[in-house]
Each structure stands twice: as structure tokens, then as C-alpha cells.
Amino acid sequence: MNARMTPLVRNAVVNSGKPGQFPAVHGLHHVAYRCRDAEETRCFYEDLLGLPLVEVIEADTVPSSGELTPFYHLFFELADGSCVAFFDLLDGKSNAKDPDTPYWVNHLALEVDSVEALNLAKTRLQEAGVLVAGVIEHESGNRAIYFSDPNGVRLEFNCRGASLERRRQVAREARAVLDGRLERIQALKKKAGTHG
Fold first, then answer.
1. Which pTM was predicted?
2. Which of 27, 56, 83, 129 has the most CB atoms lying inside 10 A of its own CB?
3. What is the count of structural domains for the chain?
């Protein structure tokens, strides 16, 4: 094991890959957001959250599209080797909010290994002046705190509470829960007095 790597906190519940189908997706490489200021973002993620800055790409042209857009692309490494990344487009703007989407919908959930780690994270964030919601215990048994970075990206730190067998049971029931979606939409419309 690489000296920088820690054992994985999580195990796959049901995803063991299916030979001959689409290539297996092994994990998250990175997720990327826009930031208004690369240094402000670095201070939050590296200095406060302890995620080391492991790569910065400075370019004038976007490789995937050919667009002329000067940018910095920053990568902060998680303990499993995946990254949270940001684009600074050098214009002082961050992600635009969608007025039709509640603020709590789009968020990045990061896993910590214990309730103690969750509580320590909450304390450190509050000491740094960050507004934190929680610790909230979800029906799944998971516990979580919620907060925002300087760019308005909503973050969650989550600690799993359910056993692997319980998570497998939930996975077996997931499709049946989703199959009730259309019926629920109709009931909500009826309750609100709308049709269609």
C-alpha cells in the first residue's frame, strides 16, 4: 500500500462489475466546479480542510473544446486518491445559481471515517467562521454536516452508519421505491389542485 494512501472507508454495496458490458467504473477521478479566486479556494480546501493541492494546470485553450479561455485548473486530493477540482477563469465569478433549484440540491458529499471525525470537522469549520448545519442523522443511519465553501459550493461530510448488509437491503429495494415516482407526482399535483 502506498504510504500516502489510507484504507478505503467504503465498500461497494452491489457494484461488482458485469463482464462483457460497459467497462467498469472504478471510482471518482475528480469532480470540478468553477471558483472565483484560485488562492481563496486553495486556502479553504488545503489550509482548512487539509486536502493537499496536487496539480495545477495553467492554460489559455481548453483541450477538449479548443475554446480560447484562459484558466487555472486546481486539484485537491482526497485520502482515496480522487480529487475535488476547480476552474478559475480569471474573471472573479463563481458558479451561477439556478433560481429554480433549491440551494441544498446540488452538493458534494465527502466521506469521513467516524462520528468523531465528523464532530472534529464541525468544530474546526466553526472555529474558522464557517456556518455548519448538523450533525444530522438520516434514515439510513448516516450522519452528516453541511456547509459551503467560499464559492458557494455546498459541501457535506458524511459518516456511514448502516451495516453493509443493511445497505445491500436498501439497494435491493431502491428500484421499487423509484417505481412509485409517477404515482407520487400525481398525488402531489392533486393535493396542490393542479392537473397535467
1. 0.79
2. 83
3. 3
